[in-house]
Model the fold of this input.
Amino acid sequence: MTVLDTIGNTPLFRLAKIDRNTEGVEIYAKAEYFNPSGSVKDRAAKAMILDGIATGRLTRDKTIIDATSGNTGIAYAAIGAILGYKVTLCLPANATEERKKLMRLYGAEIIETSPLESSDGAYNECRRLVAENPERYFYPDQYNNEANWKAHFNGTGVEIWEQTRHKVTHFVAGTGTSGTFMGTSRCLKHLNPGVKAVLMQPDSPLHGLEGMKHMASTILPGIFDASIADLRLEVGTEEAFAMTRRLVREEGLLVGISSGGNVAAALKLAEKVPPGSVVVTVLCDNGNRYLSEHFGED
Done:
């Protein structure tokens, strides 16, 4: 067994204190920070890199390059270290210091882009570098790579189906690249067409849910299909921060801000759906990489 073999098969936790007033509706959360580099992005990064090797697009003389808001970059850096590939990452300069330090610790080179352009600026800079030196880089392009969402179709969705004993009725998640939402939703709908896919969205373009996209105001990922979402729920930054604090203080789950946003949306949904519903969402990453965001302060 190698470290790569430990990616996936993460636990599913009942949020029994968060859902205590939802009248017969249960909320569960997929603890993706149990992946070796600490986030859900390990799944997609592994799939895209292995696909690159299998198709011959990633060779030993090439550097893995992509745009990231943080977690996929950390996953690329970790897998690059395991497999012996150089990694270069473009990310907004206002990404948390914890994330930058983790990428550098794994050996990745970081190119910081304007914080005013958010993840779109990192994306555009990455594409410029690849266009200038196409032979130098392997560019997975996580926003447009089919292996991204397929990692969740073949992994995350199947795991949720089995862990809920086929009882899941609603899946809730936000979108960055949209791979987790698209792949998991498609899988669950394939297994049971009655499952509802609920898209969590930040409530404005200027939000603090790092890693999440406000789809109405951003470059849409090529793998995103709006028709998969049966419902959209908006969550404010302060709502997400407050839920992140609740998760650590009531459930003992130290997770990041996007996880708080997902659970806040799951709770809003749970208050509306019929008794007997089983709502599942995603805890995207570990909260240790957000401590500088002060979400632990009241």
